[in-house]
Amino acid sequence: MAGPGLRGWRLSTRSAETSSTIFLILRRMRAPLIVLITIFAVSVLGLTLIPGRDEAGHAVRMGFFDAFYFMSYTATTIGYGEIPQPFTGGQRLWVMATIYLTVVGWAYAIGSLLTLLQDRAFRQALALQRFTRTVARLREPFLLIVGYGQTGQLLGRSLDAIGRRFVVLDVSGERVDVLDIDSYHADVPGLAADAGDPHTLGVAGLGHPRCEGVLALTDDDEVNLVVAMTAALLRPGLPVIARTVSPAIEQRMRAFGSPAVVNPFDRFGDHLRVALRSPASYQLMSWLESGPGADLPDRGRPPTAGRWVICGYGRFGRKLAEDLRAEGLEITVIDVRPDAAGGPGIVGDASEPAVMARAELDRAVGFVAGTDNDTTNLSLIAAARRINPALFIASRQNRPASAPLFAAMDTDRLLVPAETVAREIYAQLSTPLLWRFLQDMPARGDDWAAGIIGRLTRLCGPRLGSVWKVELTGRDAPALEPYLGAGDATVGGLLRHPQDRDRSLAAVPLLLHRDSGTVLGPDGDVTLEPGDQLLLAGRPSARRALLDTMTHHAVSEYVLTGRTVPSGWLWQRVTGKVPRRPAS
Amino acid sequence: MSLEKVIFGFFVLLAATLNFGFFIGDLSDPSLHNVYELFAAVVVSLIATVLKFGDRTQIGAVHLATSLVADLQLIAAALVWGYATQISSTGLDGAAMASVVSLSGGALLANLVSVVLLVIETVSFHRR
To answer: Which domains does chain A have, with CATH numbers?
Structure first.
């Protein structure tokens, strides 16, 4: 993957960063040091040239040794007095001048050094050097997060919670400073720099062999594009996940490699379509996406027939209108800009009662407050509710600070772009199989999803336990190897309880992945093969029990065949009951 | 022509010439070696060293190294001179003077290397 050219590129960036600080100091200290040397030289020379007088009254000149000694303690303001003999008037005149000269020289040199330490460029050089060193020393796989805004912080916290390492790059120094305040388990290197510069990305570990992915999460679509592009060109094959709200940028990103592009507006529309078409699928999707400990969300049923009113026809409104029209719903658009409102739209400020009245909300079924201003959105919702309390309300929350207001408004659907992106990316990174399940699941229809929800609530209650993946390989499941090879293990057989095999474990298999294909919600009689990956949802206790079955030969023997064998070697030999071993 | 190059060349050459001036003459004869010349050689050599700070090129690094060698030798010579005049019971005799001058001779070699480097740098600059 990393060719020789790339390695060279990485090394050159590293050596350049490490030595720059010391060169900066040396270069800046040139003038003060030369001034100091010159002042000392002139003072010492003057002292040796001006004649003094010894006790006998003879004229003697001071030697270099005495002169240098005298200047050293005078210049540093220590002052031991006049040696070897009391000075003459001429000598005192010269010393007076040199005292002021040397003090100025020292003050200049020390002042320059202190200024240098305070200097922004110098501090940046120091920070860059420390960052470069920390990144270069990373010995475990890490992700490169570009853009540490709301999305980046949300994602960073979740990734840290599951023990993933990452490096942060953001253009704003304040956001990088947040890293020091956030209590992360792992040390997170952060740098405030322009991510649009490939060199910066290289310093942040793009060329690092342990870099396992790049996340472009800045607010600026252009920067995200540049990051995706740089990663695709310099590290082909490295997974890239990029956030964008513009379909045009999405197209341009896809021109380079195959980045996973997350468009929150697009996702919201897709989710709404899933919710319209099959409420149970949407319910299951949002339940699994919410993570462990989440309660089963309500199966809110958006109105599938009738007219929707969309306020704000920007990128979000446009995308949503497209999705709703595709579902066969009637749309009325309100926007201030005449060109944006489109054909059947109403031009005007929706917060004006007259404009709102033209939308005939009393005969509509759904209302979307989709402007990019939270205050406007909130007042639009309030106005719409007053006209027609039965409306299904969807809204867009732009700023994190508005969260409590929207929560108090109790909208039926709320888009928080940062959270949507963070949740999507987290699902992709933490459990790729879950991500796959969520992608394919809506196609199976409403009844199927309702069935899965039914099984999950029956087995584990209305609270999601954990969602985890098992790999049926020799490394992870050594006790299952003999059965997998012979084709004697089924999904249902595996999910029996190790203490009583007539009971089944409190876990539901969501997805079975093997090289030949993927099975959603595999039935109990599906035969397992070596190398299969299984995605399960259920109680944490079921997870531990399954781990026993996978690693313990006596347990797997009992769970899969019903034969009870002793677990110790001695008793196995004494009773002659030995668990099945791999054929080889 | 850049002023920086003029000053740089001036100090490098001056360090070498002062050093040479002090070094030349019978090793052990104190009357042939002026102590003011040694003082000037030390000061100019120190200034030349500071001027070489912060150059990131390979030739700049070697420049700095030769200057540091010259400083070391000259300061050692000055220390020997100080010891001989102030502490030693025999004073500045022929043996002490010989060691001062021979130490400065070592510095002269380093300064000559510096001058050679300067010439090489100049020539290769023109060839480009």
So the answer is: 4-118 (1.10.287.70), 138-262 (3.40.50.720), 274-299+415-455 (no CATH), 303-411 (3.40.50.720), 465-575 (3.30.70.1450)
